[in-house]
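testing teh design pipeline on a random one, pls ignore if ur not involved
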């Protein structure tokens, strides 16, 4: 693909417009959370336990993780554009299947297929790294992933209102319609950005050990996975806490649920504005600290007897702020260990993040009971957020050693 200095919107012979990349990541975020306020009523509709319907998050994330391992090397070999378009097309069909499902099993099956939209999120980051170097990539990824912040701010709230007006199926019809629009936009605006690999597809998959041998890759990927793990645990447990602990209606859960996204938006802005000047490592460190401090304050208020819906959801904005600073910068660091394997690195790092998220989401849903309050959820979130702080400190220590040696990874 030519590399002119300016992107021309809806001209795929130039670099993709940042608006296209933002909307691609936003679509992936919307598919994850728009229907979450409807989970209690969906359990009633399908005559299934809430924990069964909560699997719509955990199974989606699990398939999401597996797909990320596959799409990275495939896109390094075949190109970003065909893989992204194929994933979006499958997502549209799966969304229609979810809307038409008559049993919980059928719904969950189509919900897992919906995870194909992950290609839009994973490969949008690889597209950025195809075009610009590490610190600039961290900055641009920060702006691109603002789509993942704006959408959660309005998605659950809008989804809750849409369910009340038209039923839970309306959320999935909306996803199918928006997916069709994103498919057209991607077709028109996104050309090929990967340089192309001279390796066969099997050889491309065999490049994974190169990344697995890099402590820095594992450090950056681990920091992103652990920091975001707090958010995924929140996804699995917060609807239950809102419904059973605070007695909120679906539209109220949707309103409160988007609180972390406000912080995430601010964190993404800080990443976009300051990553080039401050550097990737310090941005990740400060982000993981903000995440851990917000959750610790939340837990402390509950132990002190002052926990409420406002404090529970409001303090989650600090978690969002931390993730908005951590994820773009840690992702850029992971993709820069081997820039020629940006798609593979994006897929593996994303799989670690999403796979861990699936486990934490399921764990949060399992441990929460009518008598437990919010404590199990907050403890899970605190432990993984502290793990993220430790992980980035190890990366910084590793880089200090590399500065004194000839090692590269």
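output:
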């Amino acid at each position: 693909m030519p590399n002119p200095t300016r992107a021309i919107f809806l001209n795929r012979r130039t670099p993709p417009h940042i608006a296209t990349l933002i909307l691609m990541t936003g679509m992936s975020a919307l598919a994850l959370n728009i229907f979450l306020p409807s989970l209690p009523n969906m359990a009633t509709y399908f005559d299934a336990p809430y924990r069964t319907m909560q699997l719509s998050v955990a199974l989606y994330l699990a398939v999401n993780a597996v797909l990320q391992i596959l799409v990275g090397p495939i896109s390094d070999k075949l190109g970003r554009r065909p893989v992204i378009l194929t994933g979006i097309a499958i997502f549209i069909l799966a969304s229609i299947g979810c809307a038409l499902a008559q049993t919980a099993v059928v719904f969950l099956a189509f919900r897992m297929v919906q995870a194909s939209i992950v290609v839009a999120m994973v490969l949008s980051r690889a597209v950025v790294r195809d075009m610009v170097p590490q610190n600039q990539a961290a900055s641009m990824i920060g702006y691109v992933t603002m789509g993942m912040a704006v959408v959660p701010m309005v998605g659950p709230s809008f989804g809750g209102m849409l369910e009340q007006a038209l039923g839970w199926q309306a959320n999935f019809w909306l996803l199918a319609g928006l997916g069709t629009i994103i498919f057209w936009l991607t077709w028109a605006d996104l050309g090929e950005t990967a340089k192309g690999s001279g390796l066969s597809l099997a050889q491309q998959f065999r490049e994974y050990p190169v990344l697995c041998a890099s402590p820095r890759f594992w450090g950056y990927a681990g920091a992103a996975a652990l920091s975001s793990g707090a958010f995924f645990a929140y996804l699995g447990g917060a609807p239950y806490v809102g419904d059973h602990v605070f007695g909120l209606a679906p539209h109220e859960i949707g309103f409160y649920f988007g609180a972390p996204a406000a912080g995430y938006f601010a964190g993404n802005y800080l990443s976009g504005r300051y990553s080039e000047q401050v550097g990737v490592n310090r941005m990740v460190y400060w982000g993981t600290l903000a995440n851990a401090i917000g959750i610790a304050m939340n837990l402390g208020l509950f132990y002190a007897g002052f926990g409420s819906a406002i404090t529970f959801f409001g303090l989650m904005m600090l978690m969002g702020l931390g993730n908005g600073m951590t994820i773009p910068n840690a992702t850029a660091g992971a993709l820069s260990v081997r820039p020629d394997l940006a798609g593979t690195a994006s897929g593996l790092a994303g799989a670690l993040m999403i796979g861990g998220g699936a486990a934490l989401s399921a764990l949060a849903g399992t441990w929460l009971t009518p008598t437990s309050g919010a404590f199990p959820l907050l403890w899970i979130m605190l432990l993984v957020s502290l793990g993220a702080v430790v992980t980035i400190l190890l990366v910084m220590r590793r880089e200090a050693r590399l500065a004194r040696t000839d090692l590269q990874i």
